[in-house]
Amino acid sequence: MSRDHHYDAVVLGGGTAGELVASELARAGRDVALVENRLVGGESPYFACVPSKSLLLSARRGETWELATARRDEVTGHLDDDRAVARMAEAGVTVLRGWGRVLGPGRIEVDGAAHGFTDLVVCTGSEPAVPAVDGLAAVPTWTSDEALTVPDLPRRLVVLGGGPVGCEMAQVYAAFGSQVAIVESSGRLLTAEAPFAGEALADALRRMGVDLRLGAEVARAERKETGLRLWLSDGGTLDADRVLVAAGRRPRVDGLGLETLGVAAPPGRGLPVDETCHVLVTEGAPPGRDDGQQDEPAAAHEPGRAPGGPARPVGEAQGGRAGAAAGGVWAAGDVTGIARTTHAARYQARVVASNVLGRRRAADYRAIPRVVYTTPTVYSVGISPARAEELGMDVLTAGYDLAATARATVEADERGRVELYADRSRGLLVGAAAAGLYAEEWMSEIALAIRAETPLSLLTDVVHAFPTYGESIEAPLRELAGRL
Ligand SMILES: Cc1cc2nc3c(=O)[nH]c(=O)nc-3n(C[C@H](O)[C@H](O)[C@H](O)COP(=O)(O)OP(=O)(O)OC[C@H]3O[C@@H](n4cnc5c(N)ncnc54)[C@H](O)[C@@H]3O)c2cc1C
Ligand SMILES: NC(=O)c1ccc[n+]([C@@H]2O[C@H](COP(=O)([O-])OP(=O)(O)OC[C@H]3O[C@@H](n4cnc5c(N)ncnc54)[C@H](O)[C@@H]3O)[C@@H](O)[C@H]2O)c1
Description:
With 484 residues, the chain is an alpha/beta fold. It contains 16 helices and 25 strands.
């Protein structure tokens, strides 16, 4: 494509969100460029969801490491994005390879060439956050990128962080024979979720021989003749061959030139967006959480406001739009710091595409599932008990052990539990969590119930097939209905 071409829309970042926005806009007849610096497709198919789920499945099937990594490399297409690029071409999207940097309203530079745009969609994703630990830079470390692409199986692996990435990776490497330890600074695994879920997973990992150091941080790291040594804040030490840093991710906002559009996103904080995924300029916003997660999506509860201050969509100042003529600046995916999953990125991408095409659509984040694909699977949706407490919401909890289902007997696997949370004042389900086999499949109806605000009286009338784990939600639903 020639230099200085003017596009209807430039999509910055060709991952899950970018690919989808670009193809939806191009299919609607817009002249669209997708700017990608690495692989078209982004993290999910090559470095994140797909390889990690492939390795977890191989581990469950008892395959060898060699077979598991061969399968992993097959499903990630050996990190070749030809098929993704062909999909873009077929949709009519121009792919511009290189780092994109906004030069000012309506102007972007990619690999030394300038281009014009009417709408800009920022889909630059997130990157691993590496904690400042004395000596860490001098010892062999991986992030999930390496852990999911290299052929090595370390003899001793320390995983720094017990969130979704740390727990999935710890289970993979422990299953294939590495001696694994997790160091997690909070007192439990999966701190964002209901305590029983993290405890169920901790129990499963301990049974596999994983050494859990909860409530401890790594204070110092040092390279040794063979491997490395970590000193922990609780006085303990760990010897290992490799450290896998899984201590969170931060939205990728640096070096994008967004300040030229008046967008100030402090490092580590997601781009604030309204409910239409229009990027907001926030006047006097306070520093955000440094883990990149928005405390509360601006869009979910307070349309038109970014957390911490009055806000307006970029470009609405002085009667004009900074994106150029009649365009705007939008964002979708991890860069917003909201929900941070592939399915949420896809959802926001559709919301953006619809709004750019002039069909107003507002995002609703109340029922985006969060799944950790370990054994047991941990599924959460809506509000967690801790979040309810933060919001001052009076929630009723009802739970059920999966062991009481006939399916558990049939599967000879009695581990797991489900909990449902209802807002007492509104008499509605607002959240749920489950730890158990296939929970990612049989809990989907709860996401629908929360999103559709289905009355409990109707939910208690739904019949589940026998023998399924899905039957486990019937008793807690009846209990909640009886207590409300
Ligand atoms: C180990 C791991 C496992 C995960 N597993 C799951 C899972 O099972 N299910 C799930 O739903 N989610 C999972 N996630 C989260 C999921 O991967 C992300 O939420 C998703 O990839 C976000 O998509 P995105 O489009 O926002 O960003 P990305 O996919 O990261 O795409 C952003 C793209 O932008 C490009 N880019 C950035 N800046 C520029 C620039 N200036 N110029 C050009 N290109 C640029 C990058 O190269 C990248 O390709 C996992 C994450 C990790 C780390
Ligand atoms: N299956 C999925 O959907 C899936 C899987 C993996 C990741 N993801 C996405 O990727 C995002 C990132 O996941 P993550 O697990 O890297 O991040 P996270 O923020 O969810 O968890 C990081 C953990 O590391 C701990 N930690 C931070 N600094 C530490 C330190 N110095 N010492 C010890 N512990 C420390 C934190 O307390 C936290 O528990 C998630 O929010 C999720 O959205 C999704």
